[in-house]
């Protein structure tokens, strides 16, 4: 365990906003987590586990302890049909995907280049290019913060959905994920349904080809957080009813939409782009030029600039399409999770 002397959160959030915390502690083991959560010095302080901060916006000073997850280690076992990879939660997800591709563990390559820790992946059930974590997740191990005992949930108990899981609801603030176990089938089945991957639909395609293609697509559209502060898609793709979709199609015949059980999932990036907001700026915060669903810090953005911009985008989308966007990025205000709808007056429509 290491108590950091510098209390700035800037290096620990991918938006690179310049907020601070009362205390930042790096946890290197499960025992460190137990020690921090049972130490009387911290009993009255809010404690927040943080991976790489790639889906987190600190809205102001975090009055509490930010606990950086640096639990490392991985092990592989196998059955006749599958590889089982047990990964400690602090392992870097993009490095893990690359390591799998290089070492013959296929089936994870569509999730290349998603920043963050392996242990954060189940929280919003990370997904990209036709694959979600839930498709390869065997189980999730966590430290129960009430009993300080290790527990394990199998896949079906994690209640995975689109950018959803039990860790955002029933288990929120009640557990720290300590490891995940992935199940990768030895018989590789490439996932190539996503349009731009169609060139790879032939028998010679390898997991490395898919990995390389995904890296190429992502590098073109998504800003590298090491260069330009951002947290990937700021909002989730909204789901609307079939009737609402058909009504919108009368005005917007090119509206991209996908069938889901509850109706139609709409591309929020298209809604924002079609509203003419690409490149729109509020001080240092800007709607990304290549992917309108991504909000960026051009270098000088404060958390307020980003929040103002997010609220502006949300209101334009509501006015134009009668669709209420929900943010994917997790906000922390005064040491507690917060939401755009609480930060700005909810507008009646
Ligand atoms: P953090 O931001 O550190 O934490 C996220 C939340 O989880 C916080 O509430 C935190 O308190 C909590 N938390 C963190 N660790 C633990 C733990 N061990 N136990 C319990 N709670 C914990 N996401 C996708 O799904 N698909 C994409 O394609 C995608 N692309 C992205 C591209 C870019 C350029 C960026 C910057 C982000 C992208 N994201 C994407 C979002 C992000 O990468 C994921 O949400 C990722 O899983 C976040 O990991 P993290 O470790 O940075 O989480
Ligand atoms: N589009 C536009 N203009 C834009 C952006 C998108 O017209 O500025 C259109 C595209 O042309 C396409 C559609 O919107 O027709 C969807 O765009 P894209 O394929 O880029 O994906 P997305 O829906 O914007 C989602 C995820 C990403 C994930 C990609 C790839 C969400 C909220 N986002 O983005 O995840 O990488 O699909 O599967 O579901 C993240 O969660 O942080 C993230 C980056």
From TrEMBL:
Active site: 163, 233 (proton donor), 328
Main location: cytoplasm
Subcellular location field: Cytoplasm
Xref: InterPro entries: FAD-bd_PCMH (IPR016166), FAD-bd_PCMH-like_sf (IPR036318), FAD-bd_PCMH_sub1 (IPR016167), FAD-bd_PCMH_sub2 (IPR016169), MurB (IPR003170), MurB_C (IPR011601), MurB_C_sf (IPR036635), Oxid_FAD_bind_N (IPR006094)
Pathway(s) annotated for this protein in UniProt: Cell wall biogenesis; peptidoglycan biosynthesis
Function: Cell wall formation.
Family: Belongs to the MurB family.
Full protein name: UDP-N-acetylenolpyruvoylglucosamine reductase
Originating organism: Aliivibrio fischeri
């Amino acid at each position: 365990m290491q108590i950091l002397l510098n209390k700035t959160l800037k290096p620990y959030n991918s938006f690179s906003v310049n907020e601070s915390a009362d205390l930042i502690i790096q946890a290197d083991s499960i025992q460190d987590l137990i020690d921090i959560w049972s130490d009387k010095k911290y009993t009255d302080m809010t404690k927040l586990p943080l991976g790489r901060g790639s889906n987190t916006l600190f809205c102001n000073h975090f009055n509490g302890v930010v606990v950086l997850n640096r639990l490392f280690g991985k092990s592989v076992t196998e059955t006749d049909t599958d590889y089982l990879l047990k990964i400690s939660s602090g392992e870097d997800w993009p490095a893990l995907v690359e390591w799998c591709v290089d070492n013959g563990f296929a089936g994870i390559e569509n999730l290349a280049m998603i920043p963050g820790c392996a242990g954060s992946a189940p929280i919003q059930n990370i997904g990209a290019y036709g694959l979600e974590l839930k498709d390869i997740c065997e189980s999730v191990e966590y430290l129960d913060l009430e009993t300080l005992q290790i527990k394990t949930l199998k896949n079906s108990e994690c209640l995975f959905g689109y950018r959803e899981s039990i860790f955002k609801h029933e288990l929120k603030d009640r557990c720290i994920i300590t490891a995940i176990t992935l199940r990768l089938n030895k018989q590789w089945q490439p996932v190539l349904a996503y349009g731009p991957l169609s060139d790879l639909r032939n028998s010679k395609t390898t997991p490395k080809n898919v990995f390389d293609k995904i890296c190429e697509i992502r590098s073109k559209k998504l800003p590298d957080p090491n260069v330009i502060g951002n947290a990937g898609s700021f909002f989730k793709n909204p789901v609307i009813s079939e009737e609402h979709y058909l009504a919108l199609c009368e005005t917007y015949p090119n509206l991209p939409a996908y069938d889901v059980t509850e109706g139609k999932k709409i591309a929020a990036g298209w809604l924002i782009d079609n509203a003419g907001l690409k490149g729109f700026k509020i001080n240092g915060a800007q709607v990304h030029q290549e992917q309108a669903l991504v909000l960026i810090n051009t270098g000088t953005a404060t958390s307020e600039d980003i929040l103002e911009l997010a609220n502006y985008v949300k209101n334009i989308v509501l006015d134009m399409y009668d669709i209420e966007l929900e943010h994917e990025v997790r906000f922390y205000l005064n040491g507690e999770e917060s939401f755009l709808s609480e930060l700005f007056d909810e507008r009646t429509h």
